[in-house]
């Protein structure tokens, strides 16, 4: 028996096929006691990844008391969704699709402004309607919202007539010459020493030092604090990204872990959260070649901070199908074909073990069987299907990267709004 044949045989023995999300109940039962359930995806444009995570999320909230959902999205945009599902938005004629399209208006818009997310947001709003103070939250963990977070800070400090409004204006004025263009700021900061670090740090310290002043309703204090952190970390991220891919990655993932910590603290020590991010963020970096490049990610950081027993990480992948993506950054999104996974990859051996949807729970009995390094598909918002074999497969020890894996053999593209 060859090495590949052995893996295929092990998959057959230790995987469970499923036809619908109701049949994922045994897997949900395994993750229900975790403090944080990390739900991944192999792309940002696959319908099944969103619908499966949606149904798992609903079960965890409804039956197991999970407190919030946190996603790979920007804080200001996601906070608008949070306000909407908690009934804080007072616009009488606003619809779920309206709020999604309005909030997620920066490329790649399809990542959160899609039909699959609309269904989840509708459900969350309905679920929260009778929950009062125990309503479930929805938040963004990502670091890209430099200008949007500054706008939110200015708006809130102006609203409460804060004495630190001048510091906020000073920080915003420093960024104005770059016309809200991240690349312009990044080049200026990295190569010409023209940055806004001092102004941002001064504002951040003032907000942290005087956080008690800002306590009021509608989670405003939490939002102000996270927007200040996002502004500071985004400045650092853009400052760094043109000179070091690995360090800018680390700034981003450390930021996401930091924001998650603040959300958890806001909900209290018994809080449990569900995190939606790409596999490259939620699967432990130490089980991939990222570790050799000095890179960390949310999967690793949360395991280190909260303990293995408090984190349950689930990877999601596909053998072939279609996906929403673009051929370059900022370009128009299109439906692309996801080719059949190449021989010897994780997705290929899963397919060879049976052309069906399946999941594997990694445990003491079988974890050692899936520790050998194997290529594992990763598709970004920019995608070139015919060249994917050159860089879209991450060398991984699957059973160390995740606690479970869900395989959807054939997938279809998201439905953008």
From TrEMBL:
Give the highest taxon in the source lineage: Bacteria
Q: What is this protein called?
A: Erythromycin esterase family protein
Upper taxonomic lineage: Bacteria, Bacillati, Bacillota, Bacilli, Bacillales
């Amino acid at each position: 028996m060859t090495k590949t044949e052995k893996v295929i045989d092990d998959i057959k023995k230790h995987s469970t096929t499923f036809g619908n999300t109701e049949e994922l109940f045994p897997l949900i039962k395994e993750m229900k006691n975790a403090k944080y359930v990390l739900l991944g995806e192999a792309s940002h444009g696959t319908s099944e990844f969103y619908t499966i995570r949606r149904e798992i999320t609903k079960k965890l909230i409804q039956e197991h008391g999970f407190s919030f959902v946190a996603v790979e999205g920007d804080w200001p945009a996601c906070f608008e969704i949070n306000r909407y599902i908690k009934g804080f938005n007072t616009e009488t004629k606003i619809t779920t699709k309206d709020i999604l399209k309005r909030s997620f208006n920066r490329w790649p818009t399809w990542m959160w402004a899609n039909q699959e997310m609309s269904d989840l947001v509708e459900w969350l709003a309905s679920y929260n309607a009778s929950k009062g103070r125990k309503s479930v939250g929805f938040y963004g963990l990502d670091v890209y919202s430099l200008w949007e977070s500054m706008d939110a800070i200015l708006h809130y400090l102006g609203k409460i007539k804060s004495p630190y409004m001048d510091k906020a204006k000073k920080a915003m004025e420093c960024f104005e010459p770059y016309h809200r263009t991240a690349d312009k700021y990044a080049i200026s900061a990295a190569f010409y020493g023209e940055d806004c670090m001092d102004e941002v740090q001064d504002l951040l310290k003032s907000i942290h030092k005087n956080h008690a002043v800002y306590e009021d309703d509608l989670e405003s204090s939490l939002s102000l604090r996270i927007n200040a952190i996002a502004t500071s970390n985004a400045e650092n991220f853009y400052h760094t990204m043109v000179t070091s891919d690995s360090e800018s990655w680390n700034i981003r993932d450390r930021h996401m872990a930091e924001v998650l910590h603040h959300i958890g603290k806001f909900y209290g020590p018994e809080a449990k959260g569900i995190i939606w991010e790409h596999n490259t963020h939620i699967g432990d970096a130490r089980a991939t070649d990222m570790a050799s490049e000095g890179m960390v990610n949310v999967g690793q950081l949360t395991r280190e901070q909260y303990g293995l027993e408090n984190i349950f990480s689930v990877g999601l992948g596909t053998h072939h199908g279609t996906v929403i993506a673009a051929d370059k950054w900022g370009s128009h999104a299109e439906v692309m074909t996801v080719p059949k996974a190449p021989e010897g990859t994780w997705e290929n051996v899963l397919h060879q073990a049976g052309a069906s949807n399946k999941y594997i729970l990694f445990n003491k009995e079988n974890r050692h069987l899936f520790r050998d390094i194997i290529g594992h598909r990763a598709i970004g918002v920019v995608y070139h299907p015919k060249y994917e074999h050159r860089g879209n497969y991450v060398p991984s020890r699957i059973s160390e990267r995740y606690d479970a894996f869900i395989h959807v053999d054939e997938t279809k593209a998201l439905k953008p709004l």
